[in-house]
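Cross-posted from the bioinformatics board.
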Amino acid sequence: MDNRRPQELRDEELVALCQQGQSEYFNVLVHRHMEKAFRVAFDFSRNTEEAKDLSQEAFLRAFSRIKQFDGRSKFYTWFYRLVVNLCLDYARRKGRVRWQSLDGIVEENPERAELADSSSAPDEQAIAGEAKRRAESTLKSMPDKQRTAFLLRNHQGLSISDIARVMKTTEATVRVYLHRAVAALRQSLVEFV
Amino acid sequence: MSEKKQILESACRDFEEDLVLYYYGEGAEVERQRIGTHIVNCSRCRRFLDDLARVLPQVVQPEPLPQSFWDNYYRETVEKIAARRERVSWWRNFLAPLRAWFIPAFATAAVAVLAVALLFGKGGWNGQAARSRATLPQEILADADQLEFFNSMDVLESLPVLEVLDGAQPETGANRNG
């Protein structure tokens, strides 16, 4: 290996080292992708503890299957696929996702709630709260694939081609999913903004 | 509120899907220029794009989590991976000396079991079928014989034969016509 620090290596180089038996390099991948993995899982579960469990399970699976990674796609699309599949399984297992309300998150962080209170008038807060509830409700009622495409684009910033790779579908299909999701959100939220 | 819902109109049919991509900064430069030119002259598409710019930021992610959360998350995940690595290497060490003879031995045993099952299984099954028939009551056996008789005949096709068996003359086409 050259003189670069592990943090400076590309994902694929780290994966290659893991595949050669130097599995300690996997920790660098964990550090690099943990936040995004957690965010994806949170988008699906809307629960901090469950998002943590789901994303950590995805890392464990990736670690166990690292030798199966053949380098045809980027590591992060391969890994995102593991996360998304785990999340979809979780959603099916639960029947429906129990969305943790945003109010609940605020309750966990009272200091932040106070800051938010001071920044806007009560009626604005009420409208914003209702808009968020409506957005969550609309997302919840979407078909899984539409929601997945939307969350990966809107929250994770993945490109259409990467989403297509993660979802193992075509870019045209992703565009349709994304358009339908956005149209539904526009329809339900436009009256609040 | 509902009034606003009623006046919500869609963008041009050919552009709406592309406008979503335009909003997200997707698409080739040529395509983006084409949309850019279109929205200058199309108020419907411009309104659609404005709506997206106002609506989509409402679908927010949760607040950023403190660094301590990520420190704990990383530590926990690394510990779980270490435990998994430990377990895998324990199994590997345990199975390593067995591997040389374990697979051939297992295959031989499986073949032997299969051969025994084939040798004795078939006879045993037939014997069991014969025994179960012998234990059936006589009434059921008689009914079963009748069933076999009816099964051997194609009832609908052989109605005249049935009538002969019943003692009646088979109805011919001439009789039917008088």
